[in-house]
Amino acid sequence: IPGGALIATAAGCFRGIPPFIRGLGIYGCGALAAYSIVNYKTPWCIVSLTWPFLLLFGYGVVWVMQRLKNPLGPPMVLSITLGLLAASTYRMTYLNFFHYTDAEEPYVYVQTFNDVYRLMDPLDKMVKLNPLNYQMHGYIMLDSYHPLPWLLGDFPNVGYYDDDTNPTTMDADFLLVEDRRIDEVEAGLKDQYFTAPLRLRDAQDESKLYLRVSKFRAVFPGRKPDFIPGKHGGDNPDGKAQ
After folding, report:
1. How far is CA 12 from CA 6, 19, 197, 206, 209, in A?
2. What does the buried/exposed string (b/e) look like for 204-216 if buried means 16 or more CB atoms within 10 Å of the residue's CB?
3. N or C: which end of the chain has fewer CB within 10 A?
4. What is the CA radius of gyration of the chain?
5. Is the pTM of this model over 0.70?
6. What are phi and psi of 7, to 5 degrees?
């Protein structure tokens, strides 16, 4: 953005700049000023800011190279440009492929943690074994459960329950239960379950995943139940639905 902003400013000072580039510079600087005034911004607002400056930066590199008289000038400009692109690519890769759920990163905002795969991977395996498993029944008992309605959109028999609502019976093929409701739910369960902790996203308490043993035994061959009605403290020690 800084390089593009400088070029946008220069676009208004030099003659012969194409009207499109001049207009792009005005738009980019205007958008930057407008968003700077707004106190609260979500990270994806950056999308509205970066694209004009990226185009302006590319135009500026070509404009400078075409006007350099020294034969060493263009290679030097190209080297600097490639260095900036390499640094940007590194940061992009670092964030998007390795630290996309790291709350310490300024561009990470209400990102779903990889814990969600503790639910989605067993469901995907069950569906591959038999497409009729799309009809499994599930209960999501969380105050805040997005993006689960989207992720579970192919499963029509999933119910969502907040503090004021409960299913008619607690047992289901899978359950995801908020920490403070675990005792209430376990008191009503009559089947055996594989369990695992699951934290959906930052600033949210840990919840607990239940997968009915009789349904998911094929996905976890040889594994013993973690929850047996009437018994407590039987959670899998590594905390994972393997």
Report:
1. 10, 10, 57, 53, 59
2. beebbbbbbbebb
3. C
4. 27
5. yes
6. -65, -35
H-assigned helices in the chain: 2-11, 19-37, 46-67, 73-93, 117-129, 148-151, 182-188, 213-216
Closest CA to 173 of 161, 155, 151, 199: 155
Going by C-beta distance under 8 Å and a sequence separation of 6 or more, which residues neighbour residue 41? 35
CA angle 161/165/169 to nearest 5° reads 85
- Burial class, 60, CB count within 10 angstroms (exposed 0-12 / middle 13-18 / buried 19+): buried
Tokens standing for 1? 């953005």
Output the CA angle 123-184-205, nearest 5 degrees. Answer: 65
Q: What percent of the chain has pLDDT over 70?
A: 89
Instruction: Note whether 7 and 1 are within 8 A (CB).
Output: no
Read off the tokens for 190. Answer: 């009559």
State in Å, rounded, how far the first CA of the chain is from the last one.
Answer: 44
Q: What angle do CA 200, 96, 2 make, to 5 degrees?
A: 125
Share of the chain above pLDDT 90, in %: 48
Angle at 111 between CA 4 and CA 48, to 5 degrees: 25
Report residue 34 as tokens.
Answer: 């407008």
| Integer angstrom CA distances of residue 180 from 1, 93, 161, 172 | 45, 37, 14, 19
Both structure tokens of 31: 């958008």
Identity of the residue numbered 211: L
Question: pLDDT tens, 88-129?
Answer: 999 999 998 999 888 888 888 888 999 999 999 999 999 999
